[in-house]
Description:
The chain contains ten helices and eight strands. The chain is 47% helix and 17% strand. The protein is globular, with a radius of gyration of 18 Å. It has 302 residues and is α/β, with parallel strands linked by helices. Strand 2, helix 2 (44-52) and strand 3 form a beta-alpha-beta unit.
Amino acid sequence: MVGIPVYNSGKTILSCLEKVLNQTQRSCYIQNVLVVASGCTDNTVELVKGKQSVDARLLLFEERTRRGKASALNRIFEFFNTHPYDYLVVTNGDTKLDVAAVDRLIEHAEHTGAMLVCGSPKPSTPPLSQLNPIYEFMWELHNAFLEVGSRLEKPHCTDELMCFSSGVEWRIPSEVVNDGAYFSVLLAVKGHKREYCAQAIVGVSVPKTVSGLIKQRSRIVLGHVLLKKRFGATSDTFESTVILKPKLAIDVLAHQLGKRGLIRFIKAASIEGISLFAAMVRYVFGGEPWIWERVEYAEADN
């Protein structure tokens, strides 16, 4: 089963569904694809209904009120927990899965016995965007630390593509912002295995502007802060590796600097610093970060 939580994804949902429904299926058969539309005000629901007419595997749940991603995920988990599926793959409505991404996730889960396996996100960038060098640097560094975490048997889970095994009553608290980080912490506490599969590639949409990128990054940073406050722990990211294993963090960063150069690092670090400041301001003054904040995404050909 594949689950897709969406909010106003009219521009991307059809391409996302095409990629999901046309996956190679050597190690699995995708019985159903469940889309949960949370308070959509665009044409997302109509597009999904149109696709239902040509593929009976497609299911649609509508939430009339926008409650946030965690609420939509819980609708997906409830359906998965009460039906005889072996695996649940979750992705977002603006992603583009590699043709064999689901197969590779499930093969990895069966080979390792992991309760959760995450894929490898790659930025889907327009060819002439001035932000491309920054996205390349940030996502390559992100995936490098997923690799490091996997070798240490405690990877941070990325929520762009995740595979959940049956046998656990999956659920997520409504106030959680970073679902991948939450499940990473949850499984670590329970002593369950989670894994990173570099071969399960998923294309992810990226913000069109610097302000959109800062808005997106500040929400993610705030999500980690709230996770630490709520559960007393957070997942293993670049920041935590710097604190706990500084030599390892420096080695990975040095490799990335050699590959992409100092200028890209300075630009990416500047954006991350501003995002951290924005996150702290929001943390002090409150708000509801678990309600999705839409930013304008760049349109890419890939």
